[in-house]
Design a protein that fits this description.
single chain, mainly alpha, 18 helices, 2 strands, globular
């Protein structure tokens, strides 16, 4: 084995061990950052002679990876835990392929997808080659006759195992004592270092995966960009103008109706706040699909985009902004009535995301060189990372406590379900209002939860550490019955 392959093997083995210790031993906290650092140090070392391309988009994705990775230290949000892990490793895979791809490939072009597909095929080819090397090594260092016998024995074991399982099951049904003996034997075998065996198997699997992946990344791949003809427009100006005038006329009438009640702080007879919110969100989906689709189709199939067509498309986007504003105001009324939750804040953020999409679409109408799909991808990734950077739980509690001061209504059951990042806000509020037994018991529940946790270094989280220190310094005398929660303060139903 030459020096380069030795470095690959040793580096991948060390990375597999680090992954086992940081990702599979305890709940993930600071440990994820340690693994990502170790991975990229080794990755940049083995690709130091490779010309790194797509640097601007590469830096952007790299920053996104680290913003999501550091959220496991600085943000204690359980809602994003599993999704963030998936997104982080997906982005790492895309990033490692992208920065080593040929510079003439555009990252927003379909050719880059063909290049990634080619890399995945190489991954499986390397897997077959690794299997071939293992078999060759066994043949070289072992006796040919013994290898043949071992191969036949393994084949016999694979054939007989399902038969044995069926026979054991039938015999266990016929004899209870035999079943007890079999159960004891199985439990005894399972208790024999099963944890150590699973750790060893995970390390081996991680080692093989990392070895194949990094070999795939470092291998040069050749791809020929496909020459694509620009689609020829097939729709005449009269047809497009007829469609745009009809749709804009409908939206104009709809907007006039909107101004009668949606932009007022009152409800029409027979309607509730919940009805407003649900109707508004369906409108959002319809507007997103129809209006952006119409704009893209017009750009694609129009023979010549005249000023009249551009004005018609611009009006379509302006009406879309009005509907977004209408939905935003309805959602604000809904929050005033029922409080702030994750779903409602996500709905607000989604409205903002759509507004950004429509703004870029409006610019695209007048500046044809702009690539909408590229902007949509970047903004969507930035939007997701932004949701992770913002401490949403803290914001929810702050706004609900402000609303409580005005309405004397609060959903403490929902607040209790939020993460530990709410502790600083709750402690600050309790110090000003120590007569609120409900807040005190909520803090006591958080304190008991933290005391029960046996936190290892892998799971270190700054928010959790701060919450533990804050609650430890507070004098929370549990002299009040928990049944008093809600006697002075009305609780809401979180289902609304």
């Amino acid at each position: 084995m030459n020096k380069k392959n030795s470095i690959y093997f040793i580096g991948c083995l060390l990375l597999a061990i680090i992954a086992e210790v940081t990702l599979f031993t305890e709940k993930i906290g600071i440990s994820l950052s340690i693994f990502v650092v170790a991975f990229y140090v080794f990755y940049f070392y083995i690709t130091k002679k490779v010309n790194h391309t797509h640097r601007i988009i590469g830096i952007f994705i790299f920053v996104c990876i680290w913003s999501l990775t550091l959220s496991f230290i600085f943000i204690a949000n359980p809602y994003f835990y599993s999704v963030n892990l998936l997104v982080i490793f997906l982005l790492i895979g895309v990033h490692t392929i992208l920065v080593t791809s040929p510079s003439f490939l555009s990252w927003s072009n379909v050719d880059i997808l063909r290049y990634m597909q080619k890399k995945f095929l190489y991954f499986f080819k390397f897997g077959k080659y690794l299997t071939f090397l293992v078999r060759k090594w066994i043949k070289e260092y072992g006796n040919e006759r013994n290898y043949s016998i071992t191969k036949r024995i393994l084949l016999g074991i694979l054939i007989v195992l399902p038969i044995l399982f069926v026979l054991i099951f039938l015999l266990s049904l016929s004899d209870q004592y035999f079943r007890i003996m079999i159960e004891k034997m199985i439990s005894h075998l399972v208790s024999l270092n099963i944890e150590e065996i699973s750790i060893f198997l995970r390390i081996i699997l991680l080692f093989v995966f990392l070895l194949l992946w990094l070999k795939t990344i470092s291998k040069k791949s050749i791809i020929i960009p496909q020459v694509r003809k620009e689609p020829e427009g097939r729709w005449e100006q009269a047809t497009i103008l007829t469609i745009l005038v009809s749709i804009n006329g409908l939206y104009l009438f709809y907007t006039i109706v909107q101004f009668q009640y949606f932009f007022n702080d009152v409800l029409m007879n027979g309607f509730t706040y919940a009805t407003y919110a649900k109707r508004g969100f369906f409108e959002l989906i319809i507007v997103t699909v129809i209006n952006i689709s119409i704009t893209l189709l017009v750009n694609l199939f129009t023979k010549k985009r005249t000023s009249f067509i551009k004005i018609g498309l611009s009006l379509l986007i302006i009406f879309s902004f009005i509907i977004l504003l209408s939905a935003h105001l309805r959602l604000c009324l809904y929050e005033q009535a029922y409080g702030y939750t994750y779903l409602r804040l996500f709905s607000h953020s989604y409205i903002f995301l759509l507004a950004v999409f429509f703004a870029f679409t409006l610019i695209k109408i007048w500046i044809e060189k702009i690539q909408l799909m590229r902007l949509f991808l970047l903004v969507s990734l930035l939007y997701y990372c932004g949701l992770n950077v913002i401490d949403i739980d803290r914001f929810i509690v702050s706004k609900n406590l402000e609303r409580f001061e005005e309405t004397n209504l609060i959903d403490l059951q929902y607040i209790e379900s939020l993460s530990l990042s709410t502790v600083p806000v709750l402690t600050e509020y309790y110090e000003r209002n120590q007569e609120m037994n409900s807040i005190k018991h909520l803090l006591l529940a958080k304190k008991e939860l933290l005391e029960e946790r046996d936190v290892k270094w892998q799971s270190y989280n700054l928010i959790e550490d701060r919450a533990r220190k804050l609650l430890a310094t507070m004098d929370l005398d549990d002299g009040t019955s928990k049944n008093q929660i809600g006697k002075k303060y009305r609780l809401e139903n979180s289902d609304n």
